[in-house]
Amino acid sequence: MASSSKRPRSGASDTPAVPDEKPAATGVREAGEAVPHVRVAVIGSGFGGLGAAVRLRRAGIADFVVLERADSVGGTWRDNSYPGCACDVPSHLYSFSFAPNADWPRSFSGQPDIRAYLEKVATVFGLRPHLRFGTEVLEARWENEETRWRITTSAGQWTADAVVSAAGPLADPQIPDLPGLSGFPGKVFHSSRWDHEFDLAGKHVAIIGTGASAAQIIPSIQPRVAKLTVFQRTPAWVLPRRDREITQLEKWLHGRLPLTAKVRRGTLFALRELQVDAFVRRPGLLRLVQQLAERHIAQGIPDPSLRAKLTPDYRIGCKRILLSNTYYPALAAANTEVVASGLREVRGSTLVAADGTEHQADAIVFGTGFHVTDMPIGARVFGVNGTSLAEEWKDGMEALRGSTVRGFPNLFFVIGPNTGLGNSSMILMIESQLNYMIDALTTLGSIGAAAMQPTARAQRQWNLELQHRMDRTVWTTGGCRSWYLDPNGRNTVLWPGSTTSFRRATRRVDLGEYELIMRAAPAAARTVQEVSA
Ligand code: NAP
Protein backbone atom coordinates (compact mmCIF):
# COMPACT_ATOMS: atom_id res chain seq x y z
CA MET A 1 0.00 0.00 0.00
CA ALA A 2 1.57 3.26 -1.10
CA SER A 3 1.43 5.96 1.46
CA SER A 4 0.60 9.60 0.91
CA SER A 5 2.93 10.42 3.79
CA LYS A 6 5.85 10.21 1.35
CA ARG A 7 5.29 13.81 0.48
CA PRO A 8 6.39 16.39 3.00
CA ARG A 9 3.52 18.70 3.77
CA SER A 10 3.75 21.40 6.34
CA GLY A 11 1.41 20.96 9.24
CA ALA A 12 -0.09 17.74 7.89
CA SER A 13 -0.21 15.87 11.14
CA ASP A 14 -2.99 13.80 12.62
CA THR A 15 -2.97 15.69 15.88
CA PRO A 16 -5.60 18.38 16.02
CA ALA A 17 -3.61 21.56 16.46
CA VAL A 18 -3.33 24.96 14.91
CA PRO A 19 -0.45 24.46 12.52
CA ASP A 20 2.54 26.65 11.85
CA GLU A 21 2.13 29.20 9.14
CA LYS A 22 3.99 28.68 5.90
CA PRO A 23 4.11 30.90 2.87
CA ALA A 24 1.01 29.79 0.99
CA ALA A 25 1.25 28.99 -2.69
CA THR A 26 0.20 31.91 -4.86
CA GLY A 27 -0.65 30.21 -8.17
CA VAL A 28 1.07 33.02 -10.11
CA ARG A 29 4.40 31.88 -11.50
CA GLU A 30 7.27 32.83 -13.71
CA ALA A 31 7.57 30.97 -17.02
CA GLY A 32 8.90 27.43 -16.47
CA GLU A 33 8.12 27.41 -12.76
CA ALA A 34 6.29 24.32 -11.52
CA VAL A 35 2.63 24.38 -10.63
CA PRO A 36 2.23 24.71 -6.85
CA HIS A 37 0.69 21.77 -5.06
CA VAL A 38 -1.53 21.98 -1.99
CA ARG A 39 -3.17 19.30 0.04
CA VAL A 40 -6.61 20.94 -0.23
CA ALA A 41 -8.07 23.61 -2.51
CA VAL A 42 -11.25 25.17 -1.20
CA ILE A 43 -13.52 26.91 -3.70
CA GLY A 44 -15.38 29.90 -2.26
CA SER A 45 -15.07 31.99 0.88
CA GLY A 46 -18.62 32.23 2.14
CA PHE A 47 -19.79 30.46 5.28
CA GLY A 48 -18.90 27.08 3.71
CA GLY A 49 -15.40 27.97 2.52
CA LEU A 50 -14.39 29.87 5.65
CA GLY A 51 -15.81 27.08 7.83
CA ALA A 52 -13.77 24.56 5.83
CA ALA A 53 -10.65 26.67 6.32
CA VAL A 54 -11.12 26.86 10.10
CA ARG A 55 -11.74 23.13 10.35
CA LEU A 56 -8.72 22.28 8.17
CA ARG A 57 -6.46 24.36 10.39
CA ARG A 58 -7.93 22.80 13.51
CA ALA A 59 -7.24 19.36 12.05
CA GLY A 60 -3.59 20.34 11.63
CA ILE A 61 -3.83 20.82 7.86
CA ALA A 62 -2.19 24.12 6.93
CA ASP A 63 -1.39 23.24 3.34
CA PHE A 64 -4.48 24.65 1.66
CA VAL A 65 -5.70 27.63 -0.32
CA VAL A 66 -9.15 29.20 -0.50
CA LEU A 67 -9.86 30.27 -4.08
CA GLU A 68 -12.28 33.19 -4.27
CA ARG A 69 -13.37 34.91 -7.48
CA ALA A 70 -14.34 38.16 -5.72
CA ASP A 71 -12.09 40.53 -3.79
CA SER A 72 -13.38 39.82 -0.28
CA VAL A 73 -14.92 37.03 1.78
CA GLY A 74 -18.63 36.54 2.46
CA GLY A 75 -20.13 34.59 -0.45
CA THR A 76 -23.83 35.22 -0.79
CA TRP A 77 -23.65 37.61 2.19
CA ARG A 78 -21.12 39.72 0.28
CA ASP A 79 -23.01 39.63 -3.02
CA ASN A 80 -26.49 40.33 -1.68
CA SER A 81 -26.31 43.94 -0.57
CA TYR A 82 -29.80 44.91 -1.73
CA PRO A 83 -31.81 47.29 0.47
CA GLY A 84 -33.39 45.38 3.36
CA CYS A 85 -31.22 42.27 2.99
CA ALA A 86 -31.25 40.30 6.25
CA CYS A 87 -31.37 36.71 7.37
CA ASP A 88 -34.66 35.17 8.41
CA VAL A 89 -32.95 32.66 10.68
CA PRO A 90 -32.04 34.13 14.09
CA SER A 91 -28.42 35.24 14.21
CA HIS A 92 -27.56 33.32 17.36
CA LEU A 93 -28.31 30.14 15.40
CA TYR A 94 -27.14 31.45 12.02
CA SER A 95 -23.49 31.57 13.07
CA PHE A 96 -20.69 29.06 13.58
CA SER A 97 -20.85 27.00 16.77
CA PHE A 98 -17.10 27.60 17.13
CA ALA A 99 -17.40 31.37 16.65
CA PRO A 100 -20.23 32.69 18.84
CA ASN A 101 -20.90 36.40 18.49
CA ALA A 102 -22.18 38.15 21.61
CA ASP A 103 -22.59 41.37 19.63
CA TRP A 104 -25.34 40.47 17.18
CA PRO A 105 -27.35 43.70 17.03
CA ARG A 106 -30.74 42.15 16.23
CA SER A 107 -32.44 38.80 16.53
CA PHE A 108 -32.51 38.68 12.69
CA SER A 109 -29.37 40.58 11.77
CA GLY A 110 -28.90 42.41 8.52
CA GLN A 111 -26.48 41.65 5.69
CA PRO A 112 -23.84 44.22 6.73
CA ASP A 113 -23.57 42.61 10.19
CA ILE A 114 -23.40 39.07 8.80
CA ARG A 115 -20.76 40.11 6.30
CA ALA A 116 -18.76 41.85 9.06
CA TYR A 117 -19.02 38.65 11.14
CA LEU A 118 -17.49 36.62 8.29
CA GLU A 119 -14.68 39.15 7.83
CA LYS A 120 -13.96 38.82 11.54
CA VAL A 121 -13.96 35.01 11.35
CA ALA A 122 -11.40 35.22 8.53
CA THR A 123 -9.13 37.42 10.67
CA VAL A 124 -9.57 35.88 14.12
CA PHE A 125 -9.05 32.32 12.88
CA GLY A 126 -5.92 33.23 10.91
CA LEU A 127 -7.40 32.42 7.50
CA ARG A 128 -6.08 35.43 5.59
CA PRO A 129 -2.77 33.83 4.47
CA HIS A 130 -4.81 31.11 2.75
CA LEU A 131 -7.18 33.40 0.83
CA ARG A 132 -6.63 33.97 -2.89
CA PHE A 133 -8.90 36.75 -4.11
CA GLY A 134 -9.62 37.47 -7.77
CA THR A 135 -9.11 33.78 -8.40
CA GLU A 136 -12.02 32.27 -10.27
CA VAL A 137 -11.95 28.52 -10.76
CA LEU A 138 -12.30 27.95 -14.48
CA GLU A 139 -11.66 24.21 -14.43
CA ALA A 140 -10.90 21.47 -11.92
CA ARG A 141 -9.82 18.23 -13.57
CA TRP A 142 -9.00 14.95 -11.85
CA GLU A 143 -5.73 13.42 -13.07
CA ASN A 144 -5.92 9.64 -12.76
CA GLU A 145 -2.19 9.00 -13.12
CA GLU A 146 -1.24 11.54 -10.54
CA THR A 147 -4.25 10.95 -8.27
CA ARG A 148 -4.78 14.64 -7.80
CA TRP A 149 -6.82 17.58 -9.01
CA ARG A 150 -5.48 20.15 -11.44
CA ILE A 151 -7.21 23.45 -10.92
CA THR A 152 -7.06 26.17 -13.53
CA THR A 153 -8.09 29.59 -12.31
CA SER A 154 -8.15 33.12 -13.63
CA ALA A 155 -4.97 33.68 -11.56
CA GLY A 156 -2.95 30.59 -12.38
CA GLN A 157 -2.91 26.84 -11.75
CA TRP A 158 -2.69 24.67 -8.66
CA THR A 159 -2.71 20.95 -8.11
CA ALA A 160 -4.37 19.55 -5.02
CA ASP A 161 -4.95 16.20 -3.34
CA ALA A 162 -8.51 17.20 -2.55
CA VAL A 163 -10.99 19.87 -3.55
CA VAL A 164 -13.69 21.26 -1.28
CA SER A 165 -16.42 22.88 -3.32
CA ALA A 166 -18.03 25.55 -1.20
CA ALA A 167 -19.15 27.57 -4.21
CA GLY A 168 -22.66 27.65 -2.77
CA PRO A 169 -26.05 27.22 -4.39
CA LEU A 170 -26.99 30.92 -4.15
CA ALA A 171 -23.95 32.20 -6.03
CA ASP A 172 -24.96 32.64 -9.65
CA PRO A 173 -27.95 34.85 -10.42
CA GLN A 174 -30.72 33.53 -12.63
CA ILE A 175 -32.29 36.03 -14.99
CA PRO A 176 -35.04 34.65 -17.22
CA ASP A 177 -34.34 34.61 -20.93
CA LEU A 178 -37.01 37.13 -21.95
CA PRO A 179 -37.61 38.30 -25.50
CA GLY A 180 -36.67 41.96 -25.88
CA LEU A 181 -34.82 42.31 -22.56
CA SER A 182 -31.59 43.43 -24.21
CA GLY A 183 -33.48 46.30 -25.88
CA PHE A 184 -34.84 47.71 -22.61
CA PRO A 185 -33.60 51.32 -22.48
CA GLY A 186 -33.58 51.61 -18.65
CA LYS A 187 -31.57 50.08 -15.83
CA VAL A 188 -31.62 46.31 -15.29
CA PHE A 189 -30.05 44.38 -12.44
CA HIS A 190 -30.43 41.26 -10.31
CA SER A 191 -31.13 41.39 -6.58
CA SER A 192 -27.69 39.92 -5.85
CA ARG A 193 -25.90 42.46 -8.06
CA TRP A 194 -27.49 45.62 -6.70
CA ASP A 195 -26.40 48.82 -8.42
CA HIS A 196 -25.96 51.24 -5.51
CA GLU A 197 -25.03 54.05 -7.90
CA PHE A 198 -28.49 53.99 -9.45
CA ASP A 199 -30.94 56.29 -7.68
CA LEU A 200 -34.40 54.75 -7.60
CA ALA A 201 -36.02 57.90 -6.22
CA GLY A 202 -38.92 59.07 -8.35
CA LYS A 203 -38.57 56.22 -10.86
CA HIS A 204 -41.05 53.66 -12.18
CA VAL A 205 -39.51 50.42 -10.97
CA ALA A 206 -40.60 46.91 -11.85
CA ILE A 207 -39.59 44.06 -9.60
CA ILE A 208 -39.80 40.57 -10.98
CA GLY A 209 -40.54 37.77 -8.53
CA THR A 210 -41.90 37.49 -5.02
CA GLY A 211 -39.41 35.20 -3.31
CA ALA A 212 -37.39 35.84 -0.14
CA SER A 213 -35.19 38.49 -1.78
CA ALA A 214 -38.01 40.44 -3.44
CA ALA A 215 -40.04 40.36 -0.21
CA GLN A 216 -37.23 42.26 1.52
CA ILE A 217 -36.55 44.64 -1.38
CA ILE A 218 -40.19 45.66 -1.96
CA PRO A 219 -40.82 47.33 1.45
CA SER A 220 -37.35 48.90 1.39
CA ILE A 221 -37.75 50.69 -1.94
CA GLN A 222 -41.52 51.27 -2.14
CA PRO A 223 -41.47 54.55 -0.15
CA ARG A 224 -38.73 55.96 -2.43
CA VAL A 225 -39.98 55.13 -5.90
CA ALA A 226 -42.70 56.93 -7.86
CA LYS A 227 -44.32 53.66 -8.84
CA LEU A 228 -43.56 50.03 -8.04
CA THR A 229 -44.89 47.28 -10.28
CA VAL A 230 -44.54 43.80 -8.78
CA PHE A 231 -44.68 40.87 -11.19
CA GLN A 232 -45.87 37.98 -9.07
CA ARG A 233 -45.96 34.60 -10.78
CA THR A 234 -46.75 32.65 -7.62
CA PRO A 235 -47.70 34.24 -4.29
CA ALA A 236 -45.75 33.26 -1.19
CA TRP A 237 -47.06 32.44 2.27
CA VAL A 238 -45.86 35.10 4.69
CA LEU A 239 -45.69 35.00 8.48
CA PRO A 240 -44.97 37.85 10.91
CA ARG A 241 -41.30 38.45 11.69
CA ARG A 242 -40.50 38.60 15.35
CA ASP A 243 -37.42 40.76 15.01
CA ARG A 244 -36.09 43.02 17.74
CA GLU A 245 -32.92 44.67 18.95
CA ILE A 246 -30.68 42.62 21.19
CA THR A 247 -30.43 44.59 24.42
CA GLN A 248 -27.13 45.71 25.95
CA LEU A 249 -27.86 43.42 28.91
CA GLU A 250 -28.24 40.39 26.63
CA LYS A 251 -25.00 41.24 24.81
CA TRP A 252 -23.21 41.72 28.12
CA LEU A 253 -24.54 38.42 29.44
CA HIS A 254 -23.62 36.51 26.27
CA GLY A 255 -20.12 38.04 26.36
CA ARG A 256 -19.46 37.47 30.06
CA LEU A 257 -21.35 34.22 30.54
CA PRO A 258 -21.02 32.24 27.31
CA LEU A 259 -23.33 29.63 28.78
CA THR A 260 -26.24 32.06 28.33
CA ALA A 261 -25.45 32.31 24.61
CA LYS A 262 -25.31 28.52 24.42
CA VAL A 263 -28.71 28.22 26.09
CA ARG A 264 -30.15 30.75 23.66
CA ARG A 265 -28.71 28.89 20.66
CA GLY A 266 -29.86 25.57 22.05
CA THR A 267 -33.41 26.85 22.48
CA LEU A 268 -33.53 28.27 18.94
CA PHE A 269 -32.15 24.99 17.64
CA ALA A 270 -34.67 22.84 19.52
CA LEU A 271 -37.66 24.96 18.44
CA ARG A 272 -36.69 24.46 14.81
CA GLU A 273 -35.96 20.75 15.19
CA LEU A 274 -39.46 20.30 16.57
CA GLN A 275 -40.96 21.74 13.37
CA VAL A 276 -39.21 19.28 11.08
CA ASP A 277 -41.74 16.50 11.43
CA ALA A 278 -44.52 18.71 10.06
CA PHE A 279 -42.46 19.51 6.94
CA VAL A 280 -41.19 16.02 6.21
CA ARG A 281 -43.74 13.54 7.53
CA ARG A 282 -46.99 15.19 8.56
CA PRO A 283 -47.65 18.20 6.30
CA GLY A 284 -51.24 18.19 7.64
CA LEU A 285 -49.86 19.70 10.85
CA LEU A 286 -48.95 22.81 8.89
CA ARG A 287 -52.65 23.71 8.56
CA LEU A 288 -52.46 25.63 11.83
CA VAL A 289 -49.46 27.60 10.60
CA GLN A 290 -51.35 28.32 7.38
CA GLN A 291 -54.19 29.82 9.42
CA LEU A 292 -51.70 32.20 11.04
CA ALA A 293 -50.52 33.22 7.59
CA GLU A 294 -54.12 33.75 6.41
CA ARG A 295 -54.70 36.01 9.39
CA HIS A 296 -51.50 37.89 8.53
CA ILE A 297 -52.80 38.58 4.99
CA ALA A 298 -56.21 39.64 6.32
CA GLN A 299 -54.56 42.12 8.70
CA GLY A 300 -52.11 43.50 6.13
CA ILE A 301 -54.32 43.66 3.03
CA PRO A 302 -57.75 45.28 3.49
CA ASP A 303 -58.66 45.14 -0.24
CA PRO A 304 -60.33 41.75 -0.95
CA SER A 305 -59.29 41.61 -4.60
CA LEU A 306 -55.62 42.25 -3.74
CA ARG A 307 -55.92 39.74 -0.90
CA ALA A 308 -57.19 37.14 -3.38
CA LYS A 309 -54.20 37.80 -5.67
CA LEU A 310 -51.79 37.38 -2.77
CA THR A 311 -53.28 34.20 -1.33
CA PRO A 312 -51.40 31.07 -2.42
CA ASP A 313 -53.28 28.00 -3.63
CA TYR A 314 -50.75 25.51 -2.23
CA ARG A 315 -49.97 24.33 1.26
CA ILE A 316 -47.76 26.50 3.43
CA GLY A 317 -44.17 25.22 3.54
CA CYS A 318 -44.20 23.86 -0.03
CA LYS A 319 -42.22 26.94 -1.04
CA ARG A 320 -40.03 28.84 1.39
CA ILE A 321 -42.16 30.63 4.00
CA LEU A 322 -41.38 34.33 4.08
CA LEU A 323 -41.14 36.33 7.30
CA SER A 324 -42.12 39.99 7.07
CA ASN A 325 -44.17 42.64 8.83
CA THR A 326 -43.65 45.19 6.09
CA TYR A 327 -44.28 43.23 2.87
CA TYR A 328 -48.09 43.42 2.83
CA PRO A 329 -48.28 47.11 3.79
CA ALA A 330 -45.84 47.87 0.93
CA LEU A 331 -47.94 45.87 -1.54
CA ALA A 332 -51.09 47.65 -0.35
CA ALA A 333 -49.49 51.11 -0.75
CA ALA A 334 -51.01 53.53 -3.26
CA ASN A 335 -47.88 53.60 -5.48
CA THR A 336 -47.64 49.78 -5.77
CA GLU A 337 -49.34 47.63 -8.39
CA VAL A 338 -49.32 43.86 -8.10
CA VAL A 339 -49.48 42.12 -11.46
CA ALA A 340 -50.55 38.56 -10.71
CA SER A 341 -48.61 37.16 -13.62
CA GLY A 342 -45.05 36.46 -14.67
CA LEU A 343 -43.08 38.76 -16.96
CA ARG A 344 -43.20 37.37 -20.50
CA GLU A 345 -41.61 39.92 -22.78
CA VAL A 346 -40.04 43.37 -22.95
CA ARG A 347 -40.91 45.82 -25.76
CA GLY A 348 -38.83 48.95 -25.42
CA SER A 349 -39.71 50.34 -22.01
CA THR A 350 -42.96 48.35 -21.91
CA LEU A 351 -43.06 45.16 -19.87
CA VAL A 352 -45.56 42.60 -21.11
CA ALA A 353 -46.94 40.21 -18.51
CA ALA A 354 -47.94 36.64 -19.27
CA ASP A 355 -51.59 37.76 -18.92
CA GLY A 356 -51.04 40.25 -21.77
CA THR A 357 -51.17 43.43 -19.67
CA GLU A 358 -48.57 46.12 -20.40
CA HIS A 359 -46.62 48.17 -17.87
CA GLN A 360 -44.10 51.00 -18.20
CA ALA A 361 -40.83 50.97 -16.27
CA ASP A 362 -37.60 52.97 -15.95
CA ALA A 363 -35.80 50.11 -14.18
CA ILE A 364 -36.19 46.36 -13.78
CA VAL A 365 -35.00 44.53 -10.68
CA PHE A 366 -34.86 40.77 -11.05
CA GLY A 367 -35.56 38.94 -7.80
CA THR A 368 -35.65 35.74 -9.78
CA GLY A 369 -33.31 33.57 -7.75
CA PHE A 370 -30.22 31.54 -8.55
CA HIS A 371 -28.89 28.61 -10.56
CA VAL A 372 -29.41 26.01 -7.85
CA THR A 373 -30.26 22.68 -9.50
CA ASP A 374 -27.87 23.51 -12.35
CA MET A 375 -24.90 24.80 -10.32
CA PRO A 376 -22.46 26.45 -12.78
CA ILE A 377 -19.45 24.94 -10.96
CA GLY A 378 -20.70 21.55 -12.26
CA ALA A 379 -19.70 22.43 -15.82
CA ARG A 380 -16.15 23.21 -14.66
CA VAL A 381 -15.35 20.05 -12.72
CA PHE A 382 -14.17 16.94 -14.62
CA GLY A 383 -13.82 13.52 -13.00
CA VAL A 384 -12.10 10.18 -13.61
CA ASN A 385 -13.66 9.62 -17.05
CA GLY A 386 -13.09 13.16 -18.19
CA THR A 387 -16.81 13.87 -17.94
CA SER A 388 -18.05 16.97 -16.21
CA LEU A 389 -20.15 16.96 -13.09
CA ALA A 390 -22.83 18.81 -15.07
CA GLU A 391 -22.90 15.90 -17.54
CA GLU A 392 -22.94 13.39 -14.68
CA TRP A 393 -25.85 15.27 -13.19
CA LYS A 394 -27.78 15.85 -16.41
CA ASP A 395 -30.70 13.80 -15.02
CA GLY A 396 -30.46 15.46 -11.60
CA MET A 397 -27.85 16.17 -8.92
CA GLU A 398 -26.98 13.43 -6.49
CA ALA A 399 -24.21 12.68 -4.04
CA LEU A 400 -23.46 10.37 -1.14
CA ARG A 401 -24.47 12.08 2.10
CA GLY A 402 -24.67 15.35 0.20
CA SER A 403 -20.89 15.40 0.14
CA THR A 404 -19.14 13.11 -2.34
CA VAL A 405 -19.87 11.95 -5.88
CA ARG A 406 -18.85 8.74 -7.63
CA GLY A 407 -16.36 9.44 -10.41
CA PHE A 408 -15.03 12.54 -8.63
CA PRO A 409 -12.50 11.31 -6.05
CA ASN A 410 -11.57 13.57 -3.17
CA LEU A 411 -14.16 16.15 -4.14
CA PHE A 412 -16.08 17.23 -1.06
CA PHE A 413 -19.16 19.40 -1.22
CA VAL A 414 -20.26 21.89 1.36
CA ILE A 415 -23.98 22.44 0.75
CA GLY A 416 -24.08 19.66 -1.79
CA PRO A 417 -27.19 17.97 -3.20
CA ASN A 418 -30.06 17.47 -0.72
CA THR A 419 -28.46 19.37 2.13
CA GLY A 420 -30.68 22.47 2.06
CA LEU A 421 -33.22 23.30 4.75
CA GLY A 422 -36.68 24.77 4.70
CA ASN A 423 -36.82 25.85 8.33
CA SER A 424 -33.51 26.08 10.15
CA SER A 425 -29.93 27.31 9.97
CA MET A 426 -27.79 26.17 7.05
CA ILE A 427 -24.76 26.67 9.25
CA LEU A 428 -25.74 23.51 11.11
CA MET A 429 -25.68 21.56 7.85
CA ILE A 430 -22.41 23.17 6.78
CA GLU A 431 -20.73 22.14 10.04
CA SER A 432 -21.96 18.55 9.62
CA GLN A 433 -20.47 18.41 6.14
CA LEU A 434 -17.22 19.82 7.47
CA ASN A 435 -17.07 17.05 10.10
CA TYR A 436 -17.45 14.54 7.29
CA MET A 437 -14.82 16.16 5.07
CA ILE A 438 -12.27 16.35 7.89
CA ASP A 439 -12.93 12.75 8.88
CA ALA A 440 -12.42 11.69 5.24
CA LEU A 441 -9.12 13.54 4.90
CA THR A 442 -7.72 12.30 8.20
CA THR A 443 -8.88 8.75 7.42
CA LEU A 444 -7.13 8.85 4.05
CA GLY A 445 -3.96 10.03 5.77
CA SER A 446 -4.12 7.36 8.43
CA ILE A 447 -4.71 4.44 6.04
CA GLY A 448 -2.25 5.68 3.45
CA ALA A 449 -4.70 5.93 0.57
CA ALA A 450 -4.46 8.73 -1.96
CA ALA A 451 -8.14 9.23 -2.65
CA MET A 452 -11.64 7.94 -2.12
CA GLN A 453 -14.87 7.91 -4.08
CA PRO A 454 -18.27 6.51 -3.16
CA THR A 455 -19.22 3.10 -4.49
CA ALA A 456 -22.05 3.12 -7.01
CA ARG A 457 -24.10 1.02 -4.63
CA ALA A 458 -23.69 3.32 -1.64
CA GLN A 459 -24.56 6.42 -3.63
CA ARG A 460 -27.59 4.74 -5.23
CA GLN A 461 -28.84 3.40 -1.90
CA TRP A 462 -28.46 6.76 -0.16
CA ASN A 463 -30.46 8.54 -2.85
CA LEU A 464 -33.14 5.86 -3.11
CA GLU A 465 -33.83 6.13 0.60
CA LEU A 466 -33.65 9.89 0.55
CA GLN A 467 -36.07 10.22 -2.37
CA HIS A 468 -38.40 7.71 -0.74
CA ARG A 469 -38.60 9.97 2.33
CA MET A 470 -39.02 12.99 0.04
CA ASP A 471 -42.30 11.56 -1.28
CA ARG A 472 -44.07 12.40 1.96
CA THR A 473 -42.72 15.90 2.46
CA VAL A 474 -44.69 19.10 2.00
CA TRP A 475 -42.23 20.06 -0.77
CA THR A 476 -43.53 17.13 -2.82
CA THR A 477 -47.15 16.89 -1.71
CA GLY A 478 -47.90 20.58 -1.10
CA GLY A 479 -49.08 21.35 -4.64
CA CYS A 480 -46.46 23.89 -5.72
CA ARG A 481 -43.56 24.16 -8.13
CA SER A 482 -40.49 25.48 -6.33
CA TRP A 483 -36.80 26.03 -7.03
CA TYR A 484 -36.14 22.97 -4.85
CA LEU A 485 -37.28 20.80 -7.78
CA ASP A 486 -35.19 20.07 -10.83
CA PRO A 487 -36.69 19.98 -14.36
CA ASN A 488 -37.69 16.33 -13.73
CA GLY A 489 -39.67 17.38 -10.65
CA ARG A 490 -37.19 15.74 -8.26
CA ASN A 491 -36.20 17.58 -5.11
CA THR A 492 -32.41 17.52 -5.23
CA VAL A 493 -31.96 20.52 -2.95
CA LEU A 494 -33.50 19.87 0.47
CA TRP A 495 -32.71 17.43 3.23
CA PRO A 496 -35.82 15.44 4.18
CA GLY A 497 -35.02 15.17 7.87
CA SER A 498 -33.81 16.95 10.96
CA THR A 499 -30.44 18.62 11.22
CA THR A 500 -29.68 16.14 14.01
CA SER A 501 -30.23 13.17 11.71
CA PHE A 502 -27.93 14.77 9.13
CA ARG A 503 -25.33 15.37 11.84
CA ARG A 504 -25.49 11.66 12.70
CA ALA A 505 -25.26 10.66 9.04
CA THR A 506 -22.10 12.70 8.51
CA ARG A 507 -20.32 12.15 11.80
CA ARG A 508 -17.91 9.59 10.36
CA VAL A 509 -16.93 8.32 6.96
CA ASP A 510 -17.98 4.68 6.54
CA LEU A 511 -15.21 3.08 4.48
CA GLY A 512 -17.68 0.37 3.45
CA GLU A 513 -19.31 3.03 1.28
CA TYR A 514 -16.08 3.96 -0.48
CA GLU A 515 -13.55 2.73 -2.98
CA LEU A 516 -10.03 3.71 -2.06
CA ILE A 517 -7.54 4.79 -4.67
CA MET A 518 -3.89 4.12 -3.98
CA ARG A 519 -1.16 6.21 -5.45
CA ALA A 520 -0.04 4.52 -8.69
CA ALA A 521 3.67 5.20 -8.47
CA PRO A 522 5.87 7.75 -6.83
CA ALA A 523 6.02 9.86 -9.98
CA ALA A 524 9.17 11.88 -10.36
CA ALA A 525 7.25 14.73 -11.94
CA ARG A 526 5.32 15.19 -8.74
CA THR A 527 8.35 15.60 -6.60
CA VAL A 528 9.27 18.70 -8.58
CA GLN A 529 5.86 20.17 -7.92
CA GLU A 530 5.94 19.30 -4.26
CA VAL A 531 9.07 21.31 -3.78
CA SER A 532 7.38 24.38 -5.20
CA ALA A 533 4.27 23.98 -3.05
P1 NAP B 1 -36.44 32.56 -5.36
O1 NAP B 1 -36.92 32.17 -4.04
O2 NAP B 1 -35.99 31.52 -6.31
O3 NAP B 1 -37.57 33.44 -6.01
C1 NAP B 1 -37.56 33.77 -7.36
C2 NAP B 1 -38.85 34.47 -7.69
O4 NAP B 1 -38.81 34.89 -9.04
C3 NAP B 1 -40.06 33.57 -7.53
O5 NAP B 1 -41.10 34.32 -6.97
C4 NAP B 1 -40.36 33.19 -8.99
O6 NAP B 1 -41.69 32.83 -9.23
C5 NAP B 1 -40.03 34.49 -9.65
N1 NAP B 1 -39.85 34.45 -11.10
C6 NAP B 1 -38.96 33.77 -11.84
N2 NAP B 1 -39.13 34.06 -13.14
C7 NAP B 1 -40.14 34.96 -13.23
C8 NAP B 1 -40.80 35.65 -14.29
N3 NAP B 1 -40.47 35.47 -15.56
N4 NAP B 1 -41.80 36.50 -13.97
C9 NAP B 1 -42.17 36.70 -12.69
N5 NAP B 1 -41.60 36.07 -11.66
C10 NAP B 1 -40.59 35.22 -11.93
O7 NAP B 1 -35.21 33.60 -5.26
P2 NAP B 1 -34.80 34.56 -4.06
O8 NAP B 1 -35.95 35.36 -3.62
O9 NAP B 1 -33.58 35.28 -4.48
O10 NAP B 1 -34.44 33.57 -2.90
C11 NAP B 1 -33.58 32.46 -3.10
C12 NAP B 1 -33.23 31.85 -1.79
O11 NAP B 1 -32.29 32.67 -1.15
C13 NAP B 1 -34.35 31.77 -0.78
O12 NAP B 1 -35.23 30.73 -0.96
C14 NAP B 1 -33.56 31.64 0.49
O13 NAP B 1 -33.08 30.34 0.64
C15 NAP B 1 -32.44 32.58 0.23
N6 NAP B 1 -32.74 33.91 0.77
C16 NAP B 1 -32.90 34.03 2.10
C17 NAP B 1 -33.23 35.26 2.62
C18 NAP B 1 -33.46 35.39 4.06
O14 NAP B 1 -32.86 34.76 4.87
N7 NAP B 1 -34.36 36.25 4.41
C19 NAP B 1 -33.38 36.36 1.80
C20 NAP B 1 -33.19 36.20 0.45
C21 NAP B 1 -32.88 34.97 -0.06
P3 NAP B 1 -42.22 31.32 -8.99
O15 NAP B 1 -42.41 31.23 -7.50
O16 NAP B 1 -43.47 31.24 -9.75
O17 NAP B 1 -41.15 30.42 -9.50
Can you give the mean pLDDT? 92
Question: Radius of gyration from the CA trace?
Answer: 24 Å
Question: Can you identify the CATH class of the largest domain?
Answer: Alpha Beta
Q: What quaternary form is this?
A: single chain
Helix content: 25-40%
pLDDT < 50 runs, ≥5 residues: 1-23, 523-533
* Number of helical segments with 4 or more residues: 15
Overall structural class, as computed from helix and strand content, comes to alpha/beta
CATH architecture of the largest domain: 3-Layer(bba) Sandwich
- Biggest sheet architecture: 8 strands, mixed
CATH superfamily of the largest domain: FAD/NAD(P)-binding domain
Shape: globular
Examine the coordinates and then state which fold CATH places here, giving the name of the CATH topology of the largest domain. FAD/NAD(P)-binding domain
Overall structural domain count: 2
How much of the polypeptide forms β-strand, as a percent range? 15-25%
Q: How far is the N terminus from the C terminus?
A: 25 Å
List ligands, each type once. NADP nicotinamide-adenine-dinucleotide phosphate
User: What is the number of E strands?
Assistant: 20
How would you describe this protein?
The protein has 533 residues and is an alpha/beta fold. The protein has helices at 47-58, 76-79, 111-124, 212-221, 248-256, 258-280, 287-300, 304-310, 327-332, 389-392, 426-447, 456-470, 474-477, 499-505, 524-532, and strands at 37-43, 64-67, 131-132, 137-143, 148-153, 156-165, 187-190, 204-208, 227-231, 238-239, 322-323, 336-339, 343-347, 350-353, 358-360, 363-366, 381-382, 411-413, 451-454, 514-517. It has two domains: 37-172 and 371-530, FAD/NAD(P)-binding domain; 181-242 and 276-366, FAD/NAD(P)-binding domain (3-Layer(bba) Sandwich). Bound molecules: NADP nicotinamide-adenine-dinucleotide phosphate. NADP nicotinamide-adenine-dinucleotide phosphate is lined by residues 87-88, 170, 176, 191, 208-214, 216, 231, 233-234, 320, 342-343, 367-369, 483.
